[in-house]
Amino acid sequence: MTVKDLSHHLSNEAKRRNASALKTAFKYFGKDNIVFLGGGLPLSDYFPWDKITATSPAPPFANGIGAKPTNEADTVITEVGKTTDLEFDIPLARSLQYGHTEGQPELLDFIREHTEIIHKIPNSEWDVIVTVGNTQSWEASLRTFCNPGDFIVVEEYTFPSAIETARALSVNFAPVEMDDKGIIPEKLDQLFTEWDPAKPKPKLLYTIGTGQNPTGSSLSNERRKAIYDIACKHDFIIIEDEPYYFLQMDDYKKNSDEPAAVTHEEFLAALVKSFSSMDVEGRVVRLDSFSKVLAPGARLGWIVAQKPLLERFVRLHEVSIQTASGFTQTLVSGLLGRWGQKGYIDWLIGLRKEYTIKRNFTIDSLSKHMPSVVKYEPPFAGMFFTVKIDAAKHPKFASEFGKDPLKVEAAIYEKSLEQGCLMIPGSWFKSPNFKDHNSSEIFFRGTYAAVALDKLDIGLERFGKAVELEFSS
Amino acid sequence: MTVKDLSHHLSNEAKRRNASALKTAFKYFGKDNIVFLGGGLPLSDYFPWDKITATSPAPPFANGIGAKPTNEADTVITEVGKTTDLEFDIPLARSLQYGHTEGQPELLDFIREHTEIIHKIPNSEWDVIVTVGNTQSWEASLRTFCNPGDFIVVEEYTFPSAIETARALSVNFAPVEMDDKGIIPEKLDQLFTEWDPAKPKPKLLYTIGTGQNPTGSSLSNERRKAIYDIACKHDFIIIEDEPYYFLQMDDYKKNSDEPAAVTHEEFLAALVKSFSSMDVEGRVVRLDSFSKVLAPGARLGWIVAQKPLLERFVRLHEVSIQTASGFTQTLVSGLLGRWGQKGYIDWLIGLRKEYTIKRNFTIDSLSKHMPSVVKYEPPFAGMFFTVKIDAAKHPKFASEFGKDPLKVEAAIYEKSLEQGCLMIPGSWFKSPNFKDHNSSEIFFRGTYAAVALDKLDIGLERFGKAVELEFSS
């Protein structure tokens, strides 16, 4: 299957980018018969790191992914010098040198194989490049596709930092309506069908499809397929920002014990389908990251897309980030190489188990502590849960609050801080140009990722009390 | 000394940037009496690196900075776990977590102290932030100060990648004339004095003041002072891109032995003055980097500037790179902390010695191999040397080449490749809007950084032969 030519969606900036003239000389670099005096590279002899070593847990992580490695059997040692004999190790003489803007080949190989296992992309022209994480990848995407004044479609509640990135670039927002299950496909189709032709038609949809921030919702396979078809019909690009993809969880069971063990096959079969996995036309740009599955401070991610689009990202990276840190690339490639694809899946299964436990605990805790006015659903993926409240049920909704749900939201936020718990008011996540639904429902976003379970329970008890106090006032 | 308010130089994009609304909630993060359910941070228990270790050479590097550490006395071991007791070590639980966009405090402390030792900045409102290297810092500078259509002043021959970065952002170029010693201050003053008021006045000067790329020239202290005064007079910002600052060398001596040992005091006194060191008004943005002094692949640098300007860079970093890799920050801070400021100066002295040897060898080799039509001067700093040729002396200058020096340049480039040596033609470095001087002089840029000395000698012999063949044709 050949992908579509999407070059008409490139921004003026992306079209203006040239490869440096110096690159034409670099074709002579490393040739035996040429003494290459063309490039200002320091000798790797002068890199003051002879060897780096890292201690990590070993698959299958039988005691959990949070267990500290204590003996030879449960420990993996990554050790890489300036040179190396192992095929997945990136020697420091290369990773700490200039070059390989698209990422070091050993790391790219692992990520490509992983992508193949997970997504089975139905076109033959996809590839991956290494990035410094999805925050940068999203900015790079905006700069690659959008001119100032262009519109993008965003979920009506979304990640404020993603909005701020676009706003600074003078990009405009067309929010699409959501329900408990995320974007409503019919509303998305309607948005494009009824688009005012006096305005530039949105070139892209930005979606956090799995474990959405802030709602915690995840798009079903059916909705994803419907949305992909709408993208083909109206010719736009889907940017799927998927840091939480591998924080998918088992079904919620009340007061459950540990989740049951799963096989690799069961794990893979249970994963929701990515937009990339249905991308016959090459119109998906998938932003993937190690931030939530390994560590945010690694500043390492990757983009999956059709090659001609990736080439434009590489041109941008050449004159900005250059590439991800060589230490990071050597350490991550070294670890993943030693774990292998199977060991990495073991890790992801371990992660699923941890988050399932956290999510289940959260729902149990909510059911203990929340007054009946508070509604909630167990999220399927990600780090966030939401609690919903019908502000109209506040006894002073009409009097003190003048029927304004946002005033009730602010009152609950303050009361909750007084009680000693902080959750983020849902209105803080409203996209610019948010269209009011005339609903009296408000919500708060919480997370179970960052705190120990006992503390989470205390926090939710305090929040419940705050709502109770507020609604009985 | 209070710095000038330079907010009138900010770009519209930089002015538009807001701190995220979520940040207002983060003031409650870490407070004892609040259970903070606000942020999506993974638990550091799940970072699969329990400990990282690096083997490095130890000061005073008596056998040279390129010597491999072999025994306890000449080896420094950096070892950092998720927690740590040493004040300069950045624990992995923090460096691999989100946060600290401006850089980790331990690393910032070392860089601040280093900056104090080297530059003694004469205003009280400077600070530093960590970056992922000068390529990104230059792009961030352009985005912080320039609107599309704005002009910037650049050296008439400059780094093509720096030009490409600005060109993609629709920035225009006003090149300033140079001689063998870099920017001619009178020409810079003239450029501003005679500026066409119908065009936006340039907001900034971009200069590689030390070991300039491609000319290899370095600005004297006197020129720097003159240029700084011109910046104050005409109210523009100086962006000094200084990756080569510590590749300053001893005076060239023909067929010399090893350079004499120098004390720390002698080393520091011999350094050329930076623009930052004379920045009473706070109009210098210094782009500094570990790329040439430690390793390019670390992707680690820093910016020195007045705090209100740095704050705008931090807002940009929050929605793009976030910050430098945590592995890099932990490893570099760990090494520098163990070396100490004095050990780091030892390293820089060792670097000076290595580059002095390379530069001296290059000049000796040129004097052996170049025909008399080729002129050269020993560079004072950096990785590059240039050879100059008066194209008018080519026997076929008027006939075959139609008095076009660029055609002679192209002929020498081709002939040199045939002989097996690649140096970059000087015309490839011409800034857009380059004003022709009607000179018949051409030049080629070579480097002594990237190759072993014996190979360099072979390359220069080949280049000399190519010129000889061409000029006797």
Could you walk me through the main structural features you see in this protein, from its secondary elements to its overall organization?
Chain A is an alpha/beta fold and 473 residues long. Chain A has 2 domains: 7-24 and 82-350, Aspartate Aminotransferase, domain 2; 383-471, TATA-Binding Protein (2-Layer Sandwich). Helix content of chain A is 36%, strand content 16%. Chain A has helices at residues 12-16, 22-26, 92-95, 105-119, 134-145, 160-168, 185-193, 221-234, 264-270, 307-318, 326-369, 405-419, 453-471; strands spanning 35-36, 51-57, 75-81, 126-131, 151-155, 172-176, 178-179, 182-183, 204-207, 237-241, 284-289, 301-306, 374-375, 384-390, 421-422, 424-425, 441-447. In chain A, the strands form 4 sheets. In chain A, strands 4-12-11-10-9-5-6 form a 7-stranded mixed β-sheet, sandwiched between helices. Chain A has a 4-stranded antiparallel β-sheet with strand order 13-14-17-16. In chain A, helix 4 packs parallel to helix 11, helix 5 (134-145) runs parallel beside helix 6 and helix 7 (185-193) packs parallel to helix 8. Chain A is globular and about 85 Å long. The termini of chain A are far apart. Chains A and B meet through helix 1, strand 1, strand 2, helix 5 and helix 6 of A and helix 1, strand 1, strand 2, helix 5 and helix 6 of B. Strand 15 of chain A pairs parallel with strand 1 (35-36) of chain B, so a sheet runs across the interface. Chains A, B: Its EC number is 2.6.1.57. Chains A, B: Its cofactor is pyridoxal 5'-phosphate. Chains A, B: This is aromatic-amino-acid transaminase. Chains A, B: It catalyses: an aromatic L-alpha-amino acid + 2-oxoglutarate = an aromatic oxo-acid + L-glutamate.
